[in-house]
Structure prediction request, 313 residues.
Amino acid sequence: MPRPPGKVGLVLGSGAARGWAHIGVIRELEENGIRPDIICGCSIGALVGAAYAAGKLDALENWVRQLSFWDVVRLLDVKFNGGLIEGNSLMEFLRDTLHDGPIEALSLPFAAVATDLETGQEIWLRDGPLLPAMRASIAMPGLFSPIRHDTRWLVDGGLVNPVPISLCRAMGAHTLIAVNLNSDIVGKHFSAGVEQCDSDKEAPDEERRDLLNQWLRQLNGGLREKVLSAWRGEKRGQDDMPGLLEVVASSINIMQDRITKSRMAGDPPDSLLTPRLGWLGLLEFDRAEAAITEGRAAARRALPELHARLNLA
Prediction:
């Protein structure tokens, strides 16, 4: 049977390191004959969606699969200027590897969502330079510094619309497939146990702490103590006060979970994919293998429904 008339939109939600699951989702959908006509993203979903729309998903996947803990640490250019991370190192990589042209020149219609820090307004980034739009959409408060875009200071779109279904509908999508990375995150600790992940490439927790300490020793004493207080290198006891990043991560998890549920109650997608990655820590970007695998699994679970909806054999 032919696919029903109208455009298929793919909406990729926010979720920090869990966002590498979007790569697995896209791969599984394409291998089963489902290719979106429009793609929208928020935060890490904007980054993956932009790479896909630019025809650079292969380059992004190859890079993230090779990321080590040490690579992630090097990309986190600590500034303490509006946020823990400036983000320049990451943007330099994306500029060299992905696409530095206008959004309008992408091979697929694409848009990202960000938040105006002063007014709280939801900002749809549908045209203009791509990299600043991506950087604005991933500017998670307390972690990434805000970015000046035109006359506004912009931060993470997850503050207002973690899974931007409304944006995708406004761009003309008739059938919407949405990926929500926040379905099982509330109450999960920032630091996940290594036993919960099945990738051979990941360093044990002790090795990860050693690598972090090597990096911290290169910093001056005052900055080192600030980073240690923000990014704790060891697990805490039940009665110990959580570290700064654990507080930020848990708070953002709660907020995005509530916002996502509220917005989807009034504007649900046609199909909702929910990768199960609540165990994955906020900045554990070096655990791409497991995230991509679960993204594929989430898409695979939805295939019968998608095939019926899209009249695919």
